[in-house]
UniProtKB/TrEMBL annotation:
<keyword id="KW-0275">Fatty acid biosynthesis</keyword>
<protein>
    <recommendedName>
        <fullName>Peroxisomal trans-2-enoyl-CoA reductase</fullName>
        <ecNumber>1.3.1.38</ecNumber>
    </recommendedName>
</protein>
<dbReference type="GO" id="GO:0019166">
    <property type="term" value="F:trans-2-enoyl-CoA reductase (NADPH) activity"/>
</dbReference>
<dbReference type="InterPro" id="IPR036291">
    <property type="entry name" value="NAD(P)-bd_dom_sf"/>
</dbReference>
<dbReference type="Pfam" id="PF00106">
    <property type="entry name" value="adh_short"/>
</dbReference>
<feature type="region of interest" description="Disordered">
    <location>
        <begin position="263"/>
        <end position="284"/>
    </location>
</feature>
<keyword id="KW-0443">Lipid metabolism</keyword>
<keyword id="KW-0560">Oxidoreductase</keyword>
<keyword id="KW-0576">Peroxisome</keyword>
<comment type="subunit">
    <text>Interacts with PEX5, probably required to target it into peroxisomes.</text>
</comment>
<dbReference type="GO" id="GO:0033306">
    <property type="term" value="P:phytol metabolic process"/>
</dbReference>
<dbReference type="GO" id="GO:0005777">
    <property type="term" value="C:peroxisome"/>
</dbReference>
<keyword id="KW-0597">Phosphoprotein</keyword>
<comment type="similarity">
    <text>Belongs to the short-chain dehydrogenases/reductases (SDR) family.</text>
</comment>
<keyword id="KW-0521">NADP</keyword>
<dbReference type="InterPro" id="IPR052388">
    <property type="entry name" value="Peroxisomal_t2-enoyl-CoA_red"/>
</dbReference>
<dbReference type="GO" id="GO:0006633">
    <property type="term" value="P:fatty acid biosynthetic process"/>
</dbReference>
Length: 284
C-alpha cells in the first residue's frame, strides 16, 4: 500500500472499523487509509459486486507484514434488520468494533417544489435514519460496554442546501444527532463527531451529477476522519469538523434571481427611499 497517511504506521493495528459506503469515493479513501494504519476494515453498502471488487483492489495494496484485513459485507443502511445482521457478522468475524464511519449516503438534485414524497423519504431514510440505525446497533451490540468512536460524514449545508433540500435537512439533523449521542453515550466511553466535506470529486459523484461535475474539485477528507478516530482527538466529541478549505464561509451554489417580491415597506420616509431604490432610473 503506498504510504500516504500522515499518521504513524501501526496506529490502528488490530482495531476494527465499519465504513458504510466504503467501496467508492470518499468511503474508499477512508478505508484505504485505515488499512494503511493497520486497521481491519469492513466495507459495506448495497452493491455487493462493486464492494467485492473494491475489497480485492485494497487487498492487493496491503503489505504481507500488515495485520490489516478488509471484508466486504452487503447492507442497506435503510433497513434496520440488515444493519443488525451487519453488526453481528462483524462481531462474529472480528470480535470487536472500535470505529464506525457513517459515510454511506447520497441524494439527487431537484427543486424542492418538484420532489416527490417517495424521493424525499428515500433521502431522509438513507442519510438520517440509516446513520441512526448504524449508530444505535453498533452501540447496543458493542460500544455501550466497550467504548468506541463514531464519525458521521455530512455535507456543507450550513447556509441551507437549495437544490438538495432533502439532503440539507437530513445532514443538519445528523449534525444535531451527533451532539445528542455524544452526550448520551459519553459515560460508555463513546465519542461521536461529524465531518462536513466541501465538494469532493468522486467517480460515482460525477456519474450522479453529470454535467455539474466540472465544478466539483478534489480534496481529501480521510485524514480528518483518521484524526477524529485517533487518541489525538480523545477530548473531542459532539463536534462537526468542516473540511472545505473555507468554502462554507464564502461560497454559495445558488443565486436568488432579481425579483419584485419584496415585502411592503412601511408608510413614510422609508417607502419613499425604497421606491427610489427600485426605480431603474434612480441615481442611487
Ligand atoms: C443543485 C446543486 C448540485 C450541486 C452538485 C454538488 C453536490 C455536492 C454535495 C454532495 C455530493 C454527494 O453527495 S456525492 C454522492 C452522490 N452519490 C449518490 O447520491 C449515490 C447514491 N444515491 C442514491 O442512492 C439515491 O440518490 C437515493 C435517492 C438516495 C436512493 O436511491 P435508491 O436507488 O435507493 O432509490 P430509488 O428507488 O432510485 O429512488 C427513490 C425515489 O427517489 C426519487 N429519485 C431518485 N433519483 C432521482 C432523480 N435523479 N431525480 C428525481 N427523483 C429521484 C424518485 O422519487 C424515486 O422513486 P421513483 O420515482 O419511483 O423511481
Ligand atoms: N462528493 C462530495 O462532494 C460530497 C459527498 N458527501 C457525502 O459523502 C458521502 C460519500 O460520498 P462520495 O464518496 O462522494 O459518493 P459515492 O456515491 O461514491 O458514495 C456513496 C456511497 O454510499 C453507499 N450507499 C448509498 N446508499 C446506501 C444505502 N442505502 N445503504 C448502504 N450504503 C449506501 C453507496 O454504495 P451502494 O450504492 O453500493 O449502496 C456508495 O458507496 C456521502 O454521504 C455523500 O453524500 C458530502 C459532501 C460532499
Amino acid at each position: 500500500m503506498a504510504a500516504s497517511s500522515v499518521f504513524r504506521p501501526g496506529l490502528f493495528n488490530h482495531k476494527v472499523a465499519i465504513v458504510t459506503g466504503g467501496g467508492t469515493g470518499i468511503g474508499k479513501a477512508i478505508s484505504e487509509e485505515l488499512l494503511e494504519l493497520g486497521c481491519n476494515v469492513v466495507i459495506s453498502s448495497r452493491k455487493v459486486e462493486r464492494l467485492e471488487a473494491a475489497a480485492e483492489e485494497m487487498r492487493q495494496k496491503i503489505p504481507a507484514s500488515s495485520p490489516a484485513r478488509v471484508t466486504p459485507l452487503q447492507c442497506n443502511i435503510r433497513n434496520e434488520d440488515e444493519v443488525k445482521d451487519l453488526v453481528s457478522s462483524v462481531l462474529k468475524r472480528y470480535g470487536r468494533i472500535d470505529f464506525l464511519v457513517n459515510n454511506g449516503g447520497g441524494q439527487f438534485s431537484s427543486p424542492a417544489e418538484h420532489m416527490s414524497s417517495k424521493g424525499w423519504k428515500a433521502v431522509i431514510d438513507t442519510n438520517l435514519t440509516g446513520t441512526f440505525h448504524c449508530c444505535q446497533q453498533v452501540y447496543a451490540a458493542w460500544m455501550k460496554q466497550h467504548g468506541g468512536v463514531i464519525v458521521n460524514i455530512i455535507a456543507d449545508m450550513w447556509k441551507g442546501f437549495p437544490g438538495m433540500a432533502h439532503t440539507g435537512a437530513a445532514r443538519a439533523a445528523v449534525d444535531n444527532l451527533t451532539k445528542s449521542l455524544a452526550i448520551e453515550w459519553a459515560a460508555s466511553g463513546v465519542r461521536v463527531n461529524s465531518v462536513a466535506p466541501g465538494t469532493i470529486f468522486s467517480k460515482t459523484a460525477m456519474e450522479n451529477y453529470k454535467d455539474l461535475g466540472p465544478s466539483l474539485f478534489k480534496m481529501s477528507i480521510s485524514s480528518a476522519v483518521c484524526f477524529l478516530l485517533s487518541p489525538g482527538a480523545s477530548y473531542i466529541s459532539g463536534d462537526t469538523l468542516r473540511v472545505d478549505a473555507g468554502q462554507s464561509l464564502y461560497h454559495s451554489m445558488w443565486e436568488i434571481p432579481n425579483h419584485s417580491a419584496w415585502p411592503e415597506a412601511p408608510e413614510g420616509e422609508n417607502q419613499e427611499a425604497l421606491k427610489e431604490l427600485l426605480n431603474p432610473k434612480s441615481k442611487l
